[in-house]
Design a protein that fits this description.
Order of helices and strands: HEEHEHEEEEE
Largest sheet: 5 strands, antiparallel
Strand content: 35-45%
Helix content: 10-25%
Oligomer: single chain
Radius of gyration: 19 Å
């Protein structure tokens, strides 16, 4: 019997919501005795150790009682998504407007696949970024990014997007 990630997601979302938290992501990694279920939670102002502990206890109890994770033991890890959190949903982009982000695309946009800049806007399935600095030139085909230029990228073309910590 395989792990039903959707069932785990539903349980984790219920538990997180009951504590005023957002479920950001779940991952199930490894195999055999080295299996790990990771749950990332967040809230405005950031999560505390107590938030992680509470979610871990509640989710663990439900998963064990409903026998959701088949097979041998596994490690359950609950944490914040970190300072460099992934942006996966349109709501993530909306929440972090004005933040510094890094985006990698599947297909080149204006001759580039990697962008770093301020998240200006999210609308109609597209994200607009004000490019912060010129990209490193890796090939003759790659066009140089000019700081201050704006680039618009279709969300379906985003392979990976993360916040860039500003400390």
């Amino acid at each position: 019997m395989a792990l039903n990630l959707e069932q785990v997601r539903n349980i984790a979302e219920r538990v997180a919501a009951s504590s005023g938290l957002e479920l950001v992501e779940i991952e199930f990694l490894g195999s055999g005795k080295a299996r790990m279920l990771r749950i990332f939670i967040d809230k405005t102002g950031g999560v505390t150790h107590q938030d992680c502990e509470n979610v871990s206890k509640e989710v663990s109890t439900i998963l064990d009682m409903e026998d959701v994770v088949p097979g041998d033991s596994y490690l359950l890890e609950v944490s914040s998504p970190g300072l460099d959190r992934k942006l996966t949903k349109p709501a993530d982009y909306e929440r972090f407007k004005g933040s510094l982000i890094k985006v990698t695309t599947y297909e080149p946009v204006e001759g580039n696949r990697n962008f770093r800049g301020r998240l200006e806007e999210i609308a109609d399935g597209r994200v607009t970024i004000e490019v912060e600095a010129a990209g490193k030139k890796k090939s003759k085909k790659k066009q140089e990014q000019v700081a201050g230029n704006k680039v618009t990228i279709e969300l379906k073309n985003v392979a990976k997007a993360n916040l860039v910590p500003e400390i």
